[in-house]
C-alpha cells in the first residue's frame, strides 16, 4: 500500500473529504470550461430550483384561489402538515439538519399560502420572496460546502459515502484516531435496524471499497452494545518485509516477562505471556500452535522456544517425533528431550505425576499460582512451609511441557492424552504447548481444545479456521485461511494479556536462517550454565515415574544436573509431597541379577503354540518377568506392552500370550500401572532400579 493510498484512507475516515480528479484539456475550449463549471455547480442547484418553484406555485395558486376563504383554510392545514412531515422524516438525521429542513419548509409553505390568497406582488409578499428565498437557498449551499471540509465534518457524513456503498447507510462514524499505519474510528449502526453482525458481514466490501486486503480491515464490537464498536483500518502491510531472527529479546530475564515472537502489521511488537500475574489479573495459559504445511509453524515454534530458553527461571520438557530436525541446536538447553514413541509416553505420564507434587509445594509455601518469587530460595516467612520462620526451601522454576508434532502423540495415546494436563497443570506452574497442523476434533478431543486458552494460528485451509480461532475473532475480520502456505509466519495470536481488539490483527514471526544456528547454539550453552535446574520436588516426581529415562539437563561436561541426582536420594522428602519410589513388598527380596535355574525335564515339550519350550513354574515365571521389567527399566523404557517383549520372548522361548497374562498380574501387584492407551503399561520404578 503506497503512502498516497494511506493518506486517502486517513482523510476519508478523519474528515470526510473525498478526492476527485477532473480532466480539463489544455487550451481555452469554452465547451470544456462550461462543462467543468456546470459539473461543479450541479450539487448547489436544487435549493435555487426550489426557490423558483415556490414562486411559480404562489402565482398559479393566486390565479386559482385568490380571495377564497376555503382555500385559505386548506392551504394553512397543508402547510402545517408538510412542516410536521418534514420534522418526522428528519428524525434519523442530525438535530441541526432536522431543524434547518423544518424551518425552510415552514417558511416556504407560509409564503405560498399568502401568495395564493393575496397575490404574489401584494404588499411585502414579493419583497419577502426576493430577499428570503435566496437567503434560504444560500443557507443550504453553505451547509453543503461545510459538509466537505474538516470543520464541518460533524454536521455531515464523515465517511464520504463509504458506508452507504457497503450497505450500512445511515450508520454513524465518529472522529478517527490516527496512529502510525493504523486508523481507528468509532462506529454506530442504526438502532433497531442494524447490529454489529451487519458490520462484520460488510468488512470484505469495505476492504474492496478502500482497495485494501481483507485482513487490513477489522471490527471490534463494544462488549456493552450490540450496535457500537470500532472500525480499524491498517492501510500499509508492514509484514510484507521479512525479518530474520537475531537473538532473544531479554536474555536472563524472567519467564513472567513478555516473550517477543514477532510484530503486528502496524509495526508494534507481537508478544505472549505464559505464567499468570495476579496483580495484572492475567491467568496462566497453555498454547496451541496450529498451521498447515508450509505456513511457517517451525519458525514460529523456534521464536517461542528461544524466548523461553533465554529466561533464568524456567525448565523445558520437549518432545519431538521428528528427532529434533529443527530444534537440534537448542537441545543441550532442554531439561528433558524425547524423540517420540515410548519416550513421549513416559514424558506424558511424568507431567501428570509432577502436577500434584508441584501444586502441593506451592500451596504449602503460600502461592495460589506460580510467580517469579517461587523460583527463588524461600527466605520469606510469608512463603514458608514452616510456621513462623523462613524455611529456606529450594525454589521451584516454571515448567514448560512442549509436544511438537502432537498429532503423532495423539494417534499413539488417544485424542484425550493431554486433557488432564491441560485442565490441571496451570495451577502447578506448568504451561502445556501443543503444536500440530490441524487441531480438528478427530485428532484432539474437545475437552483438550477447550482447555488451551491461547492459540497461535498460522495459515491454514479455509475450512479449518474454526478449529484454531474463536468465532468472535473470525467475525471481527481474522481469516488465516486466506494465507494458506503462501505467507509463511503470518499469524493471529489470541492469549491472556493481549488486548482483545488485537486478536484479529495479523502478525508475523521472525524467520530462522542458517545464520541463526550459531546464535541458537550459544543460547543453549548459556542455558546449560545459567538456566534453572529442576527442583527436587519436580525431579523426584518425574523420576518416580520415568526412572532413568529422566536425568535432567546435563551440564556442559555431560554430567546430570544436581537436582536430578538429589531427587533419587531424598525418599523421605518426596513421600512428604506425594512422590517417591514405589516397590512391591513381595518383590523386595528379588535379585534382578540372579541366574535362571538350570534346565529341567520337559524343556523340549512343545506348548504355547511354539515348537519347543516348557511352562515355567510360578516362582520361575515371577523371576523371569521381574528380570525382564528390570532390563526395560535399566534401558530407560518405562512404558511397555506385549509388542515390546517380542525379542525377549524369542530369547526365553515364551509366548506373547504368556507375557500378556504376566503384565496384568504385575499391574495387580503394583509393579505396573495402566496408561491411557489400551495394552500399554507404565513401569513403576523400584528402589533397586533407582
Automatic annotation (TrEMBL):
<keyword id="KW-0547">Nucleotide-binding</keyword>
<protein>
    <submittedName>
        <fullName>Sporulation protein SsgA</fullName>
    </submittedName>
</protein>
<dbReference type="GO" id="GO:0005524">
    <property type="term" value="F:ATP binding"/>
</dbReference>
<feature type="compositionally biased region" description="Acidic residues">
    <location>
        <begin position="585"/>
        <end position="604"/>
    </location>
</feature>
<feature type="region of interest" description="Disordered">
    <location>
        <begin position="585"/>
        <end position="618"/>
    </location>
</feature>
<dbReference type="InterPro" id="IPR027417">
    <property type="entry name" value="P-loop_NTPase"/>
</dbReference>
<feature type="binding site">
    <location>
        <begin position="291"/>
        <end position="298"/>
    </location>
    <ligand>
        <name>ATP</name>
    </ligand>
</feature>
<keyword id="KW-0812">Transmembrane</keyword>
<feature type="transmembrane region" description="Helical">
    <location>
        <begin position="71"/>
        <end position="90"/>
    </location>
</feature>
<keyword id="KW-0067">ATP-binding</keyword>
<dbReference type="GO" id="GO:0003677">
    <property type="term" value="F:DNA binding"/>
</dbReference>
<keyword id="KW-1133">Transmembrane helix</keyword>
<feature type="domain" description="FtsK">
    <location>
        <begin position="267"/>
        <end position="467"/>
    </location>
</feature>
<dbReference type="InterPro" id="IPR002543">
    <property type="entry name" value="FtsK_dom"/>
</dbReference>
<dbReference type="InterPro" id="IPR050206">
    <property type="entry name" value="FtsK/SpoIIIE/SftA"/>
</dbReference>
<keyword id="KW-0472">Membrane</keyword>
